[in-house]
Amino acid sequence: MENSPSLTIGQLAWNDRSGLPEIPSVYIHGLSRxxxxxxxxxxxxxxxxxxxxxxxxxxxxxxxxxxxSALPSGLPQVPFWSxxxxxxxxxxxxxxxxxxxxxxxxxxxxxxxxxxxxxxxSGEKLERLLCEAFALVREAAKRSIGLRHFDVQILGGIAMFxxxxxxxxxxxxxxxxxxxxxxxxxxxxxxxxxxxVNDYLAARDAETMGPIYRLLGxxxxxxxxxxxxxxxxxxxxxxxxxxxxxxxxxxxLRDRLLLRRVGESPVSWQSGAGELDKVSxxxxxxxxxxxxxxxxxxxxxxDEARTPLIISAIPGEAQHRAVACFRWAASVATxxxxxxxxxxxxxxxxxxxxFAGRQLARMIPKPLELGPVxxxxxxxxxxxxxxxGREFHLxxxxxxxxxxxVIVDEFTGRxxxxxxxxxxxxxxxxxxxxxxxxxxxxxAARITVQDLFRxxxxxxxxxxxxxxxxxxxxxxxxxxxxxxxxxxxxQRQQLPNRVFATAEHKWRAIVQDIExxxxxxxxxxxxxxxxxxxxxxxxxxxxxxxxxxxxxxxHIAREAEIVAQAGQYARVTVATNMAGRGTDIRLGEGVxxxxxxxxxxxxxxxAQRIDRQLKGRCGRQGDAGSHQQFLAMDDEILALAFTHKxxxxxxxxxxxxxxxxxNTSPRxxxxxxxxxxxxxxxxxxxxxxxxxxxxxxxxxxxxxPYLDMPDQ
Length: 712
Description:
Strand 7 (342-345) and strand 8 form a beta hairpin. The strands form five sheets. The chain has a seven-stranded parallel beta sheet with strand order 3-4-2-5-13-1-14, sandwiched between helices. Strands 15, 16, 17, 18, 19, 20 and 21 form a seven-stranded parallel beta sheet that branches. Strands 9-10-11 form a three-stranded antiparallel beta sheet, covered by helices on one side. By secondary structure, the chain is α/β, with parallel strands linked by helices. The chain has four domains: 9-65, no CATH class; 95-270 and 289-309 and 450-483, 3-Layer(aba) Sandwich (Rossmann fold), CATH 3.40.50; 314-441, Alpha-Beta Complex (Pre-protein croslinking domain of SecA); 491-664, 3-Layer(aba) Sandwich (Rossmann fold). The model is unreliable at 1-35, 42-48 and 54-73 (pLDDT under 50). The protein has 28 helices and 21 strands.
């Protein structure tokens, strides 16, 4: 058979037992089962020799030749063992519908959409409707908002419909791609939710994409902070609903509390068998959790997975006593010193008083309110206050807004209003900053973001940076990650990393680099890890008389405006990592010829995904662009991964030149990053384990796992 290279599979003898072509076993041996099955499933138009040649080149894979008529034009090639290779056929089938739909008017398109709804609600599998439905959405988008889905966007929509996370490069049109699975899943009449990172993006996407759904006879709603129950019920009653994970979660909890108050089970309500008046203000707002599409899936499903959404109970006398404890502990925390009074575990980030520390805690005078408080609790208040003093800093982990502590999300750089740290940390921060302590009360209802999305019958996501977290998304949510090809080849250029002995040398080099690029007219985007570092760099640029814009949690109102202008001629933008989400950066006139947008990364973040997101701001949709990483031996990432003492020893061992450059390999920083990523992953796995067993215990006791719980 090896001597018959021109012979096709259709002309070969078939294996009677399996019905598969007899391909020499030497080429199959060593391949994974999945790849081998893909090889043996080739259609008759491929020759055995072409199959063998493809297997031989497995280290630099490329798809085998296919008839020109079998592939839609403009769809990039993908490896033949990838699921995307087989989904390409559906892209081709969807393209076949285009001439037919182009000949129909808007009324006929709406009638066709209603026909698909009838078929879906009659029990026909959505898989059979996919090609026609996607073609219908493509035509509706072209007519209503002037945008036509590229073939790669159709491919991404297919991946998300099948319950996967589609990784799409920045600027590839994820918002438009999401309309495809949202439309198809909404046809069954159970609602489809799109969860994004903030109210602004939810409102913007609903307004921008709304005309597509309405042309096809579907309704669109959006959930915003501050809406009343009637407005929320109306939004959830729409076919497609945009909102944030936080709002979806709190509405779920409020519904559970309402159903308990009126004595009805959530199951009977969602099945339609309940006795509640569904029109009255006492009715729940949710109508079930059928399908959720998660925008920026890595941010929501991973970074915010452990975030608890809590509805608090009414405070009592114990809570008022706790306020006095928090304030007293904050006032004495500076009297305790590491190694002398307490031990600090850098790995677990915990504080524990030693004998001398406990003795000091007993000796320090206390107010009368602390009389009934036991010594063990006193020690815990002091340990918590010490931890807060070490790890929680103004303009880094939080800001003070309208007299309240507002958390700054470490992964997005945005203010997370409504969120609070648990285990008394939030109250300890309030006491440290001298503002009103919002006592931690009992929990009336509680759910984590992770548990919220695991409740959906169907779940999918999209993001620009998910491949590095594919294992976690698969293990926790059952979501596979597929990297969708770009519509145009990526032109982004990566410049060599630069490592310096100290942060001072690093910042000086960054300012010099910005000054050089600014003189050329190239736009520059500089990403920083925290608010205070963005403002420190801003001060250095001002001293160098370089005009620039600053984007951090203090300037959230102008976020879209600042980011949108970051690609203009000679524009310099300093931003926390919030610049990596939600708004495209379009290049100004003449900028492409200069080399496009240049991105400077000033530190390594806790997760590689955040670095990739920032770098992905340049080179949008095949544009020119470049990025470069600046590092220093006293960067925070090394201390977080290896402890302060070990990081200091590492820095002391390297020799710097006159510019402060060192020859340390950047791999050291990547190793530190991976160590922190593994630490966070373990925490999320532990959370999932505890939540699973806690719910199981409550169910066995006949309790509601979201409402019946001890005070946290």
